[in-house]
Amino acid sequence: MKLEVLPWLILFLPLLAAAGITLFTHKNRELSAKLSIGAIVAGFVLSVLFIAANGWKPLKRETLVTWLEVGDLQVDFGLRLDPLSLLMLLVVTGVGGAIHVYSRGYMRDDRGFSRYFACLSLFTFSMLGIVLANNFLMLFIFWELVGVSSYLLIGHWFERPSAADAAKKAFLTNRLGDFGFLLGILMVWTMAGGLNFSLIEDQLKQDPALFGRMATVAGLLIFCGAIGKSAQFPLHVWLPDAMEGPTPVSALIHAATMVAAGVYMLCRVFFIFNTPALHVIAWIGAITALMAALIAVQQNDIKRILAYSTLSQLGYMVMAVGVAAPTSAMYHLTTHAFFKALLFLGAGSVIHALHHEQDIWKMGALKNKMPVTFWTFLFGTLALCGVPPFSGFYSKDAILAQTLEQHSYPLFAAAALVAVLTTFYMFRLFFLAFLGSPKTEAAKHAHESPAVMTWPLRLLALFSLLGIDRAVPTFVDGGAHRNWRGDCRLPCRACGVCPGQGRPAAREARRAVNSHAQAVLLRRILPGHSHQAARRDGGARRLGGPPVGQRILHRPGPRRDRSCRPGAPAGPERQPADLRLLFRVGRGAGALVRDRKITR
User: Fold this and answer.
1) Which spans in 79-214 are helix H?
2) Which residues of the chain have pLDDT under 50?
3) Which residues pair with 301 in a beta bridge?
4) Taking the CA atoms of the chain, what radius of gyration do you get in angstroms?
5) CB 136 within 8 A of CB 26
6) Is 488 exposed, middle or buried (CB count within 10 Å of its CB: 0-12, 13-18, 19+)?
7) Complete DSSP assignment for 121-145
8) Which of 346, 361, 375, 352 shows the shortest CA–CA distance to 446?
9) pLDDT score for 58
10) Which of 16, 126, 358, 481 has the most crowded CB, counting CB atoms within 10 A?
11) pTM reported for the whole predicted model
12) Rounded-to-integer distance, Cα 403 and Cα 349, Å
């Protein structure tokens, strides 16, 4: 394996930054921010370099050192490097890096500026440890470190009683789930004789009855950790109150890191769960998703609406694991990380402009005063609501398709209702905040946030729109249509994704429609992005030809002989350009619908 030292650097750079800020640069605000931001940005760059050198499946999938050895007991400190951990590594460092940069502008006048960035770096180190852990003991240690660092971040403004209480509530509620998690780890260790993930998985492949009658109990105890960390019913109560922390903390905790850790852990140890345990997991996820969506409908605080939305989307992910679709769960986790971080940072931009006003009924008419925030927040809203061609459409669709494939019709009905409620409460928030008339003096005199805050919004909006719909499932499992073992779940004639199989015409039509729509939308968030450039850059090249966006708009339409129709004039006829575009988009949409029907 090439560049084997890079994963260790990625893991420990944030810890070094946290220690350096705490011990040496605490009084130098700018240097503290640069250390913290530099550590996570360097982690992202090193992650890209490592993947470029070794691919998504390195030859050596684990790198470890002996940490503790007493008699027959040997505990390793090891890193697991597979497509699942490498994808999550990019998500944590990429989204986390954007939030770090945004924080420099949002928190610039805060008295605890250096302390804030030290806690951010400690939190990043803890989350990266969860992502790279190769055994249950290392996972649990970093699991608890995430709990400690989230306590420090939620309670950053500890002089406020509400913030201090919210931090204690989050910490204690998570300890309830972690107690069950620890019992599950001890039970697995007793029955499997080890804590290494690969060792346990190999033993279960050789002897599926390894856990015997305790298999369901062990699986559900492990699931307790995810109930606490990912805020599932009945331990969901800490998440809405965690909004008392700074808005960038809310984006970090509720998008790509802490709450995603529970779902990531379920996907990592998916081999442990049997069918009864998966049924319980699926229904807990569905109940959480529906309950949180209903509560979000009547919320007026912009951050609490997004918090309950996060609860609801986490329920989607947990339900996906319960219907034996961890690939779909990770798919939605990844897309959700981008658009939910975008929504929280967009909410922070609004709160910053309105002098920390969070009531959506005291906003209004921000569209023209804050154009970048308006368009990027709209992108995040459309992605969350599952509107094509935004990434959320594809990841939600994968979960809904899996519930139908498993014939789990009550779960499908609940998930569909959650999707409807999500659209309602998100556009309620959007219309009240950005349209209409200004409700207060602060709304009348609002202005756009500085560039250090708007550029992370543009970046996250870009990733909420482009590329993710086809890339993520390939990274994790080779395709969204495949199960966790890599076997295609669809008939060959209906797949449309496997090389040499499926419906290439329908696939190309779908790409053409998505590429053109994405190119048009790009003009709204990228400065100086002209219409011609949007059409040029938005197209996907095929077989060395022109971009798809140009091909749709500029390629002459086919000549059609309509003489066979009664009363039609003889001879070839060329369709007008606008009609050609309309017909091509219509055929692409029709092909997409036909593919979906066959898939079902």
Assistant:
1) 83-106, 113-132, 136-154, 161-192, 197-206
2) 467, 469, 478-507, 509-510, 529-600
3) 359
4) 25
5) no
6) middle
7) HHHHHHHHHHHHB-BHHHHHHHHHH
8) 352
9) 87
10) 126
11) 0.81
12) 37
Residue type, 102: Y
CB proximity list for 434: less than 8 A, separation 6 or greater: 363, 364, 365, 366, 367, 370, 374, 377, 378
Please name the residue that has the structure tokens 């034996």: 324
CA separation for the pair 38, 571 (Å, rounded) = 67
Decide: residue 555, CB within 10 A, 0-12 exposed, 13-18 middle, 19+ buried.
middle
Measure Cα distances from 325 to 60, 77, 471, 484, 541 in Å.
26, 29, 17, 7, 32
513-553, pLDDT tens digit by residue?
A: 555 555 555 555 666 544 444 444 444 333 344 443 333 33
CA distance 379 to 392: 11
Spatial separation of the C-alpha atoms in residues 356 and 321, rounded to whole Å: 38
3-state secondary structure of 112: coil
d(CA 156, CA 144): 18
pLDDT tens column, 428-474: 999 999 999 999 988 998 999 999 999 999 999 998 886 454 555 55
